[in-house]
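Structure in, sequence out. Go:
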C-alpha cells in the first residue's frame, strides 16, 4: 500500500545541500566504491576535527533514505569512530551523523552505501498503453510546424556565432533557448543541453563554451520563458505562475506540466536534426538533475539521439515508497497533499523516467551520488538496470546532489570526446561459425573495445533477435529454423559497427545421451608461480576427445589487462603423470588445421596470438587436470578452457573444477560453463577449506556470484553455512552425494541451481577485496 505521506516537497533542487553539511565531520566507507554485497558488513569511518567542541554526537541509519534501521549516541576516540551496518537485500543506506558545535550550531554529515545495486528494481509496472500514449503525442506534435525564429545576438567568445531561438510546440507553447556554433565550418555534431530545476536565466557561456569545442549547441529553458533576463524577472515567475511548477496539472496526464516539458525536449532535438549545419551523425543530449531527467526522456522519444548523459538524473522510481525507498525528485507522492493521491500517482506513471528506458536505443551515461537525498541513488539504479543498450553508471560514494561530482565529470568529458570525434568501437574478436546438432545449444560471442561503454544487438539473417543485447547470444535447443547467418551491431557513444557474419550450420542428428551434460568450462584467473599457477580439473565418464586451451596474449582483445604473455599448458592424469604439453599452439604445423577445425566446430574464439597454447587429445574415462603456468616463471591473467567434443554417446563431463589465485579487479576468478540442455548443477567456491589439502595462502572469504549470458545476476552466495538450516542441510547432502569433499569452513560458498541450456558465468571474488588461492567446482546433478 502506498504510504500516504503528505509532507510538501520544497524546492529541494534549489537548496545547496553541501551548505547544510559541515566540514568538521567527514564520513568514508571502508570500501572506497561504497558498494557491497548482501550480508556483507558495511563500515563507515567517522572523523571529527576539533572533536572536543562537538557536543552530543549521534547517528541515524536509514534504508532507502526512509526507514530508520539503527540510531544511537556516537562515542568518539581521538576524534574517530566506526559505525557498522549491513543489508541482507538489495538497497541503499544513508547514514547521518549530527551534533552541536561551537555557538550551539547544529553540525551534520552524511555517509552512504549501496548493496547489490544491480538488483534494485522498479516498484511498479509500466502502463500497458505507455508507448501508445507517447506515440500519440508525438504524432500530434508532428502536425505543428517547428517555426524556428532565430535572433542573432552578441557572442562572448571569438570564433563562435550566437543567437536566441524560439520553436513552436503544441497550442501556444514554445521552446526558448540559445544557439551557438563555430563561426567557420559547414557541419557539426549537435549537443542539446537541458536545464536543472528552477526558474532562472541561462548563461551564454553554457552554450558558447561547448561551441568553441566544435559543437552545434542548443541550450533550452525548461519553461516557455525568455532565455536570458534579469534575476528579478525570473524571481517574479518563481513566486507567481511557476511556483511549484512540478505540481501543475499533476492529477491528469493531459494537463501535467511535464507533458509540455517532454514534448519541448523532443522538438528541440528535432530542430537540431533538421538544421543544414548538423553533421547528420551525432546528436547528444546532456543535463543534470531535472536536466538529466530531460536528457534521458529525450533519448526515449527521439530516435536520432545518439547518446544521453544524465548527471544525477531526476524523475525515476516514483512508486519507490511502495518498496520502502524515497523516489527521485519531484517525488510525485509528496506533491498530493491537497489532491487525489491515486490520480496523481497514476499520472506519474506516464512521466516516470524509469518507464522510458525500454524505448531508448542510444548509449546512456548516468551518475549517482550515494549521499543524494534529492535524487536517491536507488532511483537512478532502477532506470539504469532497464537500459538494454550501451550504458555506463558512475557511482560517486562521497557525492550528494551537487557536490563531489568530479568522477562523473571525468567520464562525461570522455563520452563527449568520443561522440564528437565519431570514434566507433573496434571489434577485436569476431563471432565464429558453429556447427551443432538438433537439440543442442550453442552461442556466438564478440569482443570489442575503444569505447567508454558498449551496447550490442544481434541479428539473424538481417532480423534483430529480441533480447539479444549482450556480447554473447545463445541459441538453445537448435532446430533447422535456427540455421543461418548471425551478426552483431556494436554501439558506443561515438558510433556503431557491425561484425562479420558467423554461420550456424546443422550437423547430422545422433542419438541423445542418457541425461544432461556439461559441454565445456572456462576459467579466467591470475596465473602466478608455484602453488598459484592455474589448474583445471575434470572427470570423464567415457572415452572422449577434449580440446584444452591456455589463452594468455589473446585476452588483450577482450580488454583484459596484465595478460599472461607465454602460457605453458600441461595435461596430467589421475596419477599425476604428465600426458601432453604445448607452448604455442602453432608449434606443430601438422596439427594446426585440425585445431582450427575443432575450434570452429565448438564455437571457441580464434586466438589472435601464436603464443597461446592448445591441446586436442582423446582420453579414456577418468580424472584429469590441466595446468597453465607462465614460461620462465612469468605471471599474468589467463583463460583455461576445456571443451568436450560431442559424439554419438553425448558429452562426457561429470564435473569440472579450476584452482587458481583469486585477485582483485580484473584478476578475480571467472568460470564460464555451457549447458546443452536444462540441468541441475552444484557450483562451489572453496577458499579456507583448501588449507586442509596443504594449499597455502587461501582465499579466506570467497564470494560466489552466478550470471546469465547477459550479465544479469542469477544467484549469489557468501558462506554456504550461513543459509537457513533447511537449505544448508540440503546443500550438504547434495555435495556429499556428488562425492565433493566436505567443507571444513562455513565461509566457503556454494550454490545448487537448475538452469536452462546456455552459457553462464560464475565469478569468485574475495569479500572486501581480499585475495588468495581458491577453487571453483561445477558438478552435474543426475
Amino acid at each position: 500500500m502506498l504510504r500516504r505521506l503528505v509532507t510538501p516537497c520544497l524546492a529541494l533542487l534549489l537548496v545547496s545541500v553541501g551548505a547544510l553539511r559541515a566540514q568538521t565531520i567527514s564520513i568514508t566507507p571502508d570500501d572506497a566504491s561504497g558498494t557491497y554485497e548482501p550480508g556483507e558488513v558495511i563500515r563507515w569511518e567517522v572523523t571529527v576535527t576539533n572533536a572536543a567542541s562537538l557536543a552530543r554526537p549521534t547517528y541515524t541509519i536509514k534504508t532507502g533514505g526512509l526507514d530508520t534501521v539503527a540510531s544511537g549516541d556516537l562515542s568518539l576516540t581521538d576524534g574517530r569512530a566506526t559505525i557498522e551496518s549491513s543489508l541482507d537485500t538489495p538497497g541503499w543506506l544513508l547514514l547521518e551523523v549530527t551534533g552541536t558545535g561551537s555557538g550551539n550550531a547544529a553540525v551534520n554529515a552524511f555517509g552512504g552505501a549501496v548493496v547489490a545495486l544491480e538488483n534494485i528494481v522498479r516498484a511498479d509496472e509500466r502502463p500497458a498503453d505507455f508507448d501508445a500514449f507517447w506515440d500519440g503525442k508525438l504524432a500530434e506534435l508532428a502536425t505543428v510546424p517547428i517555426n524556428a525564429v532565430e535572433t542573432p545576438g552578441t557572442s562572448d567568445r571569438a570564433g563562435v556565432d550566437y543567437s536566441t531561438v524560439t520553436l513552436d510546440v503544441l497550442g501556444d507553447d514554445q521552446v526558448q533557448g540559445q544557439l551557438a556554433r563555430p563561426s567557420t565550418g559547414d557541419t557539426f555534431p549537435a549537443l542539446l543541453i537541458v536545464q536543472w530545476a528552477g526558474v532562472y536565466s541561462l548563461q551564454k557561456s553554457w552554450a558558447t563554451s561547448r561551441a568553441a569545442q566544435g559543437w552545434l549547441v542548443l541550450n533550452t529553458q525548461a519553461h516557455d520563458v525568455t532565455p536570458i533576463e534579469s534575476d528579478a524577472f525570473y524571481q517574479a515567475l518563481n513566486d507567481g505562475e511557476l511556483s511549484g511548477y512540478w505540481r501543475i496539472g499533476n492529477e491528469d496526464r493531459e494537463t501535467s506540466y511535464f507533458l509540455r516539458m517532454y514534448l519541448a525536449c523532443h522538438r528541440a532535438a528535432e530542430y537540431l536534426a533538421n538544421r543544414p549545419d548538423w553533421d547528420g551523425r551525432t546528436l547528444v543530449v546532456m543535463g543534470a538533475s531535472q536536466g538529466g531527467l530531460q536528457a534521458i526522456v529525450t533519448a526515449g522519444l527521439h530516435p536520432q539521439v545518439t547518446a544521453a548523459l544524465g548527471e544525477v538524473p531526476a524523475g525515476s522510481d516514483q512508486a519507490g515508497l511502495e518498496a520502502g525507498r524515497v523516489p527521485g525528485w519531484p517525488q510525485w507522492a509528496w506533491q498530493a497533499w491537497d489532491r487525489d493521491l491515486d490520480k496523481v500517482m497514476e499520472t506519474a506513471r506516464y512521466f516516470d523516467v524509469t518507464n522510458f528506458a525500454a524505448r531508448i536505443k542510444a548509449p546512456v551515461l548516468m551518475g549517482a551520488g550515494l549521499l543524494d537525498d534529492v535524487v536517491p541513488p536507488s532511483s537512478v539504479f532502477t532506470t539504469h538496470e532497464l537500459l538494454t543498450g550501451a550504458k555506463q553508471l558512475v557511482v560517486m560514494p562521497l557525492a550528494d546532489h551537487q557536490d563531489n561530482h568530479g568522477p562523473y565529470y571525468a567520464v562525461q568529458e570522455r563520452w563527449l570526446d568520443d561522440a564528437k570525434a565519431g570514434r566507433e568501437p573496434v571489434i577485436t574478436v569476431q563471432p565464429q561459425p558453429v556447427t551443432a546438432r538438433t537439440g543442442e545449444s550453442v552461442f556466438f560471442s564478440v569482443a570489442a573495445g575503444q569505447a567508454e561503454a558498449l551496447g550490442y544487438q544481434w541479428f539473424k539473417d538481417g532480423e534483430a533477435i529480441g533480447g539479444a543485447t549482450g556480447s554473447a547470444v545463445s541459441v538453445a535447443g537448435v532446430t533447422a529454423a535456427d540455421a543461418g547467418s548471425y551478426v552483431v551491431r556494436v554501439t558506443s557513444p561515438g558510433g556503431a559497427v557491425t561484425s562479420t557474419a558467423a554461420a550456424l550450420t546443422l550437423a547430422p542428428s545422433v542419438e541423445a545421451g542418457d541425461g544432461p551434460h556439461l559441454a565445456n568450462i572456462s576459467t579466467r584467473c591470475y596465473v602466478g608461480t608455484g602453488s598459484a599457477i592455474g589448474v583445471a580439473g575434470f572427470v570423464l565418464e567415457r572415452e572422449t576427445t577434449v580440446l584444452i586451451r591456455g589463452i594468455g596474449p589473446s585476452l588483450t582483445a577482450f580488454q583484459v589487462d596484465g595478460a599472461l604473455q607465454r602460457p605453458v599448458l600441461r595435461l596430467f592424469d589421475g596419477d599425476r603423470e604428465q600426458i601432453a604439453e604445448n607452448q604455442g599452439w602453432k608449434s606443430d604445423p601438422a596439427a594446426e588445421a585440425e585445431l582450427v577445425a575443432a575450434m570452429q566446430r565448438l564455437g571457441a574464439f580464434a586466438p589472435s596470438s601464436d603464443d597461446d597454447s592448445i591441446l586436442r587429445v582423446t582420453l579414456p574415462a577418468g580424472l584429469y587436470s590441466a595446468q597453465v603456468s607462465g614460461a620462465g616463471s612469468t605471471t599474468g591473467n589467463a583463460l583455461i578452457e576445456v571443451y568436450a567434443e560431442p559424439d554419438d554417446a553425448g558429452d562426457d563431463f561429470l564435473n569440472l573444477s579450476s584452482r587458481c589465485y583469486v585477485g582483485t579487479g580484473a584478476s578475480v576468478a571467472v568460470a564460464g560453463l555451457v549447458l546443452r540442455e536444462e540441468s541441475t548443477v552444484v557450483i562451489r567456491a572453496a577458499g579456507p577449506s583448501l588449507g586442509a589439502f596443504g594449499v597455502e595462502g587461501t582465499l579466506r572469504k570467497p564470494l560466489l556470484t552466478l550470471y546469465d549470458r547477459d550479465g544479469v545476476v542469477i544467484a549469489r552466495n557468501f558462506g554456504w553455512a550461513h543459509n537457513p538450516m533447511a537449505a544448508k542441510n540440503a546443500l550438504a547432502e547434495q555435495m556429499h552425494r556428488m562425492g565433493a569433499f566436505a567443507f571444513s569452513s562455513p565461509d566457503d560458498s556454494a550454490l545448487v541451481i537448475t538452469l536452462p541450456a546456455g552459457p553462464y558465468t560464475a565469478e569468485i571474488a574475495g569479500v572486501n577485496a581480499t585475495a588468495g588461492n581458491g577453487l571453483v567446482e561445477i558438478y552435474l546433478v543426475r
